[in-house]
Amino acid sequence: MTAPLLLPDGRGGLRDYRPRREPARFAPGGSPLASRAVLAAAHVVADPLADTTPDGPAAVDWDATLAFRHHLWAHGLGVAEAMDTAQRGMGLDFGGAAELIRRSAAEARTVPGARIACGVGTDQLAGGQTAGHTLAEVRVAYEEQLALVEEVGAQAILMASRALAAAAQGPEDYTEVYGQLLRQAAEPVILHWLGPMFDPALEGYWGSGDLDTATDTFLEVIAAHPDKVDGIKVSLLDADREIALRRRLPQGVRCYTGDDFHYPQLIEGDERGFSHALLGIFDPLGPLAAEAVRVLATGDAQGFRAMLDPTVELSRHLFRAPTRYYKTGVVFLAWLAGHQSHFSMVGGFQSARSLPHLARAYELADQIGLFPDPELAEARLRRLLAVHGLTTNGGGTV
Q1: What is the C-alpha separation between 322 and 320, in angstroms, rounded?
Q2: SS3 210
Q3: pLDDT tens-digit readout, 243-297
Q4: Do 15 and 364 touch, CB atoms closer than 8 A?
């Protein structure tokens, strides 16, 4: 019998874990996802052989990065490109994001029915796009990126801007900037409200630290331009607030949940509506999530929840505080699942989570049958443990 894995328990000790041997059962293909619009915010694969520094431009393995998008499309998911999951603003600068948008949009055109929506921000501004910029400069930066996304034929996602958060003096500045952008947009966009747990620089977005006041401003922007808003992505990790917000949306404007803690109940919905999905956790959960949504489309809400509820513990683990480092767990699972040949990240963020955190992520993913090749996942984890001085010899440590 293969020796058990010795996993760090987070308290300075070790514990045995015997992996399951059942591969993931979700094959590509299947019926279209008709009952819900589902997009996965996809990660980027670093080039591990490039000579880079943490504060230098990202070196991306384009072949592996684009292959992962094809993996998501093959399972029926849409791709939300160049979002925070792709380390936008955390290792991937605008030059890299622009190239990513161009390449991914070109790939999407080769896949019948593939959906792609791309992040539009202000990260080309100098100085880390935080303080020191005028509202006019912020708007021009947004316009440049909006033009790029529209030029390549993708849908635009207007992301929250650190520069706007720093420059705005109150709600009226948000309504002015977003109003100008929406009037210019050629097609309906997705508005993204990213909470400070994902990016502390976004504290007080929409002009107020009071979420009720901020919500009113957000809805004011939408109400003024409902024909230019396909939907909103809400990433506040507050299910009750999201439900209340989606009930106040104008007719025809969709709510895309970005809540990586409560997504099963929000996607299932209630008698007054439901959320679509645009989620970072659907990067590792893509095949399973797609199949669950197909089950929901048959009217089997209980079967949908039976598939998706067991994934929440893994998601909560990956997205635990500091939440912005969830990308490390996402890339780690992609490596274990065989979607890339290494566990390196742009900006060196593979070091952003501890070994006990990663070991627990493996365990939770293994328990829900997430790995296409469980033996490969186990072998790769053993190699990572060995790098940290943990090896097995008949079940012991040497």
Answers
A1: 6
A2: coil
A3: 999 999 999 999 999 999 999 999 999 999 999 999 999 999 999 999 999 999 9
A4: no
